[in-house]
Design goal:
Elements lengths: L4 E4 L2 E4 L1 E2 L1 H18 L5 E5 L5 E5 L1 E5 L3 E7 L13 E9 L4 E5 L5 E2 L15 H18 L4 E7 L3 H5 L4 H4 L1 E2 L10 E2 L4 H17 L4 E5 L2 H10 L7 E3 L4 H10 L4 E7 H4 L17 H11 L4 H8 L4 H10 L3 H20 L4 E8 L3 E5 L3 H18 L1
Parallel strand pairs: 9-11, 14-15, 14-16, 16-17
Antiparallel strand pairs: 1-2, 3-13, 4-5, 6-7, 7-8, 8-11, 10-12, 17-18
Helix pairs in contact: 1-2, 5-7, 9-10, 10-11
Amino acid sequence: MLDRYVYKNNKKMRMGYTTGSCAAAAAKAAAWMLLGGTEVPEVKLMTPKGIALCLEVLDARVTADGASCAIRKDAGDDPDVTDGLKIYAEVKKTEKAGIEIDGGEGVGRVTRAGLEQPVGAAAINKIPRQMIREGVEEACRQFGYEGGLSVLVRIPGGRELAAKTFNPRLGIVGGISVLGTSGIVEPMSEEALIETIRVEIKMQLAQGRSYLVLVPGNYGLDYLNEFHPNLLKTAVKYSNFLGAAIDAAVEYGARGILLAGHIGKLVKLAGGIMNTHSRNADSRMEILTAHAAVMGADRETAEALMNSITTDEALEILKEKGLLESVMKRLLERMEFYVDHRSGHSLEKGIMIFSQTEGTLGESADTRRILACIQKELEEGSMSE
């Protein structure tokens, strides 16, 4: 167990280690056993984050052909579906020089372009592959072995767990991914969520598309399902990390984005807030009140808006005062301004806002044109399949 902690929301939470660290440690221990001819009870591994791990070796087995063992995944206090899994590595000698790394049972296979590994490869990401290679090479140096080795990573139960991850949506089939850029799991890591969003954006663009559909979450998906169901296959959920999603769209060469979201989330964009989690920033009522005041709301209306608990309550007030349409129009203009500011004016953009009580509240000026462009790309993509 890793005795390291971080503080999240004033709570002390224990850190863990990634599937990549487990695979690397298992491979290192298996190589050590194969080349040394004896089982080892534990293995030491230095993670990219600079935190050293000393991990118990499980299910060790040495035969004439090779050696294998497992490391149990420990996610710390992070709600990770892979917590407790055994990550196995089997190492064998090969006639071909170098170290070959592949995935077996429970490790996913890449079926779509745009992911970190090429189509057909095991879903073992770059940093875990590097960690595996370095650990095996260390064993080779220790025992003076200069021949080739193969490493097969297995994760029993990985196929079943994959359904609870993003893998099916990303086109990774047959199991889970071996992940981790730092080797360490930080509970509720924003970095991990952002990396998932970036991967999905990259994958969408790698399929020949130049426009992205971005939604904050399930409300946005439900809205698309009702009004534009054909867009669901192109939608990327960005959670609270709109700024990071826009950054990734620019970095990976998107031509434009269509942003569809509930007013409760997107109203924050009108204030330039790019991480919309409530603990990071709220200001929903302040933003609505300011724009209503500019559009002529009196003091009584402003006070009522500021005292609203939900955006639905605020929308009802704006509707009663005849300000709903004008305020939504002004909000959309500010949303466009901040998207331009974040992207450096490098993205075409369409924005749709809605509420569950009022339905569609407004669309930015270019929304219909962006919708047509996305529809055209979808039609061209289906014709080429």
